[in-house]
Amino acid sequence: MRFGVLCNGPIFQCWQLDAIQHLVAGGHTCELLIVNANQPVTPGLVEKLIQYPYSKLLVRLWFRYLMKPAAKELADISGLNLVVPRISCFTFKKGYAEYFNEADLATIKSYKLDFILRFGFSILKGEILDSAKYGIWSYHHDDDRKYRGVPTGFWEIMFGDPVNAAILQRLTSKLDSGVILHKAYFGTIFHSWEANFNNLLKSSTDWPLQVCTKIESGDTAFLSVTNAPQSPVYKLPGNLKMLRFLLKLLYYKARFHFRDLFITEKWNVGIIENGTASFLKPGEMILPEPRWLELKSKRYQYHADSFGFTKDGYIHIICEEYDYKRSKGILISLQLDIHSLELIRRTVALELGYHLAYPFLFEYKGTYYCIPENSEGGKVDLYFFDTDSGKLIFEQTLVEDLQAVDPSVCFYNGFWWLFFTDRTSTNERLHIWFSADLKGEYTPHANNPVKVDIRSSRPAGNPFVIDGMLYRPAQDCSGRSGRRIAVNKVIALSPRVFEEVVYTIINPPPKSKWNDGMHTISVSENAIIVDGKKECFIWPAVTHKIKLKVKRKINGAK
After folding, report:
1. 3-class DSSP state of 43
2. Which residue among 8, 95, 288, 324 is buried most deeply as judged by most CB within 10 Å?
3. Which of 113-122, 400-409, 521-530 is predicted with the least confidence, judged by mean pLDDT?
4. More confident residue, 68 or 525
5. How many degrees, rounded to 5, is the angle at CA 87 between CA 85 and CA 92?
6. How far are the Cα atoms of 180, 227, 499 from residue 221, in angstroms, in the given order?
7. Each residue's pLDDT tens digit, 124-139
8. Average pLDDT over residues 89-102
9. Which residue has better confidence, 331 or 539?
């Protein structure tokens, strides 16, 4: 696709250059730079002193001296080694909007652009909005349904909102009512406004490329869906509001460091004696109280990521056993009596030289297989589960050189689908690979990451089919990791198209001992196996965290 860029000159912010570079690397061509030729009016010193918005002094000082996100560092577009024609355009004001003159519009239209990225100018109106086939694409780095206006990433922290969002939209003649081309949801970084700001910018750079991929695949229905948010319009905070914000930021920093050092997660495995997903209801629900296993373990160990099935009067479970002293997980298998849940056998199913977790267990042609998460090992491996010994036996590597977090497979619509999040963004960015055969060659989905949503991306158990529809459990990590489970209903799934919506939110039972979170659900014929979390103080975990922090400080000093 052919695209142009609206800009204020050859100097861009780094995240903007990254967006252009993604497009070019994806085979699209930058055909035109549309440069703002309007000269800003610079008032004299006396006029500056008179007109200065002293009521916004604190936030302006913050932006000038303290807000230095890496994504906003400046660089020249010449660093991309692109030869791109440039035209300088003067605009004229009419009310609050800018309009292009007819001569410049004719020149821009002559390039027959598919779309134009807006990285310059102000609020645009008039024919410029229709000067490219798919219009002008513009970012808004906040949730348009909650926060319009400025500043980016501020009000989520101010109001304690655990979820940030950002959009890429096609501009229309109606302000703030464009066509949503792409939207993503991120966890709010409460303890650092700069980090929160930076994350929103750097995480959105590949969106224009993804929209191009969708258009080229024929998935264009979203191009005609207009948006009309009713959210309030926020302005730069005044000094008193900024002081309140600084106090909140100080509190969040103290809370973050305290929890990071002293609060530890401890997990356990539970069983619900109901082998179907019939308890799922649309909307939001509370998980029935499981029968929690009382596995003998050290205080500095826990059991989580549980998968299982029933066979010949037994429940077979494979789960992670994590040891805070070793900072490492191994996989163990449990054989339980189906009625009494008495532990018959505990076996170390798999232990390698690095951390293992999330032993995704599934049945295929009467055989049980397991794909553990070994993102530290950098590959996706398939194991055979020997129910007689309780051991996992290596079959083959499915994908090399891939740091897949919580890899989960299922067969649907003629393909094996491998869902996972990547290690650089474990809770947000969902990827899909696919193959015609379980053990065959896997190919990345055309539009990876197919979804960016802190609330429902990271896999959380076995996908299952009800009435021909595929449902995919995922973690809701908004607020904290492993908070609860969102069950997604897959609307469209092909090598080039993916769409799902949240069908059910499953909350942990509120009166349970393990009610601080849950992040895995495994549905088998006669039982549903889950895990549950409680937050507590564990001294070996604290000492381990201190050692890691000291090690990082020493390495940083070197």
Report:
1. coil
2. 324
3. 521-530
4. 68
5. 160
6. 11, 14, 12
7. 999 999 999 999 999 9
8. 94
9. 331
pLDDT digits (tens, 9 = 90+) for 261-286: 999 999 999 999 875 656 678 899 99
Please provide the DSSP assignment of 213-230 as one string.
HHHHTT--GGGG-B----
d(CA 128, CA 345) in angstroms, rounded, equals 71
The separation between CA 541 and the C-alpha centre of its own chain, rounded to angstroms, equals 27
Residue 260 lies in a domain: no
411 and 444 belong to one structural domain: yes
State the pLDDT at residue 226: 78
Provide the sign of the torsion angle of the four alpha carbons 374, 379, 382, 388, taken in this order: negative
Q: Give the pLDDT mean for 381-404.
A: 97
- The full DSSP string for 183-195 is EEEEE--TT-HHH
Share of the chain above pLDDT 70, in %: 99
The CATH code of the domain that includes 437 is 2.115.10
Strands of the sheet with 391-399, listed across from one edge: 357-364, 367-373, 380-386, 391-399
Phi–psi pair at 301, nearest 5 degrees: -120, 155
Burial class (CB within 10 angstroms; exposed 0-12, middle 13-18, buried 19+) of 431: buried
- Number of structural domains, the chain? 2
Neighbours of 281 (CB within 10 A): 10
Q: Tell me the C-alpha distance between 293 and 123, whole Å.
A: 60
Which of 463, 385, 369, 458 minimizes the C-alpha distance to 422? Answer: 458
**pLDDT tens by residue, 40-63:** 777 788 888 888 899 999 999 999
Considering the domain architecture, whether residues 15 and 94 belong to the same structural domain is answered as: yes
Helix, coil or strand: residue 325: coil
Residue 448 lies in a domain: yes
Q: Do 248 and 296 have their domain in common?
A: no
Burial (0-12, 13-18, 19+ Cβ within 10 Å), 278: exposed
Q: Chain-centre distance of CA 245, in angstroms?
A: 26
Burial of 386 from C-beta contacts in 10 A (0-12 / 13-18 / 19+): middle
For the chain, report the end-to-end CA distance as a whole number of angstroms. 47
Residue 340: pLDDT over 70: yes
Q: Is pLDDT at 70 greater than 60 in this prediction?
A: yes
- The one-letter amino acid at 153: G
Please return the burial class of 190, using the count of CB atoms within 10 Å of its CB with bins 0-12, 13-18 and 19+.
Answer: buried
pLDDT value at position 111? 97
Range of the domain at 98: 2-255
Spell out the residues 6+ positions from residue 307 whose beta carbon is closer than 8 angstroms to its own: 317, 318, 319, 359, 360, 361, 370, 461, 462, 520, 522, 529
Helix H or strand E encompassing 254:
helix 239-262
Cis before 151 (ω within 30):
yes
Name residues whose C-beta falls within 8 Å of residue 245's C-beta, 6 or more positions apart in sequence.
Answer: 154, 157, 158, 237
Q: Is residue 261 part of a domain?
A: no
